[in-house]
């Protein structure tokens, strides 16, 4: 599957929504390898799916600073504390 730079939202056949992000505002593209190595890998239907580390996601959302991102940061921090 080819991706357009930015992001893509797809719904998998078994009901899971998935956002595929190929660019993160606030992170230079050369940081991809570092971020990828720090990613959590979850296997969904025998397919390994890398997820951006929660600390980097919080950092990204703080840098972007949109209104929705502020609420996301609060939810992410709460989720992180509960684990």
Written account of the structure:
- The chain has 83 residues and is an alpha+beta fold.
- The protein has one domain.
- It contains 3 helices and 4 strands, in the order E-E-H-E-E-H-H.
- It has a two-stranded antiparallel ribbon with strand order 1-2. The protein has a two-stranded antiparallel ribbon with strand order 3-4.
- Strand 3 and strand 4 form a beta hairpin.
- Helix 2 runs antiparallel to helix 3.
- It starts with 6 loop residues before the first strand and ends with a helix.
- The mean pLDDT is 79.
Write the layout of secondary structure elements.
Blueprint: E1 7-11, E2 17-21, H1 32-38, E3 40-44, E4 47-51, H2 54-64, H3 67-82
Antiparallel strand pairs: 1-2, 3-4
Helix pairs in contact: 2-3
Oligomerization category of the chains in this entry: single chain
In whole angstroms, how far apart are the ends? Answer: 34 Å
The total number of structural domains is 1
State the order of secondary-structure elements, H for helix, E for strand: EEHEEHH
The backbone outline, from C-alpha atoms, is: globular
Radius of gyration: 14 Å
Q: Which blocks of ≥5 consecutive residues have pLDDT under 50?
A: none
Summarize, please.
The protein is of the alpha+beta class. The protein contains 3 helices and 4 strands; from the N terminus they run ββαββαα.
List the main descriptive attributes of the protein structure presented here:
globular; 41% helix; two-stranded antiparallel ribbon; 83 residues; 3 helices
């Amino acid at each position: 599957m080819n991706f357009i730079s930015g992001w893509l939202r797809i719904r998998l056949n078994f009901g899971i929504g998935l956002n595929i992000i190929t660019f993160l505002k606030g992170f230079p593209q050369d940081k991809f390898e570092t971020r990828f190595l720090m990613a959590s890998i979850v296997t969904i239907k025998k397919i390994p799916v890398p997820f951006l580390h929660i600390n980097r996601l919080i950092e990204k959302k703080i840098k972007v600073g949109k209104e929705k991102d502020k609420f996301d940061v609060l939810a992410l921090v709460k989720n992180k504390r509960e684990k």
